[in-house]
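Reading a protein record of the kind used here takes little practice once its layout is understood. An example of such a record is reproduced below.
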Amino acid sequence: MRGVLNINKPAGMSSYDVLRKLKPVLKSKRLGHSGTLDPMATGVLLVLVNEATKISRLLLNLSKDYEAEIRFGLQTDTDDLTGKVTRTAPVPEIKAEELSRVLQEKFRGELLQVPPIFSALKQNGVPLYRRARQGQKPVRSARKVKVEDLSLLSWEPPIARIWCRVSAGTYIRALARDLGVALGSAATLAGLRRTRIGEFTLERSYSLSQVLGAEKGVEGLLVPVEQALAHLPKIVVSAEQAERLQKGRAVIFLEIEAKPGSELGLALTRESNFCALVKIKPGRLIPERIVYAE
């Protein structure tokens, strides 16, 4: 059993809580997830089963859609409502049109974003949240992120609801915090729902109760690895080429056009008993990682 399970994570559970709930049902040797959600957040959480754990990095790098509620008038140490209030400020007296304009002009495109102090990012091997809980104030560097699309769904002071499509590594908590500052106020994240990771959508997700109560087993709910990586070019290789790739050797392959630089692709046999990530070079394929070989 291998593949990706699209779970609609409920509020109040960490991503690892979800794995612990599913482990007895999945009965897999390896279990992971791609794209952590904070306990207060809900929505798409990709659970990776067995060999699918090998593609975690590729799924992490996919763009993501979120619906968020932002509470104006206060700022917290965690940048969401689970934290301690560190500052209060008047709620901005603006119309929805003006708020929408600020979002479009200042928070769309490439941004430099300082991650929340309570985050899983590591500094010298130690997560920032652990340092913060010890009373430390680690210095955080701004990182380049991209907000591909952004819109205001509603504005009912002090709550704004927004929708956004962002690159990997973007913190919606930090976006809420920075929006408050941009409007001369303060703001924190009040609610968050992830509605998409790549081609995985909330509409096609399963609740925990659906998975735990699946009468015919959960294998039929898993998305195959090759389908989960549908955004990569697929290359059908022969059994002999697969054997060579499995041994870490490049193979001659003239049937696919290589783009400038190196492009990642998915090498498969017609029998679907071999799957590998490969770099596509002019006239050849170079093995990057064997996902499975039976």
About this structure: The chain has eight helices and 18 strands. The CA atoms of residues 81 and 279 lie 44 Å apart. The two ends are 13 Å apart (CA to CA).
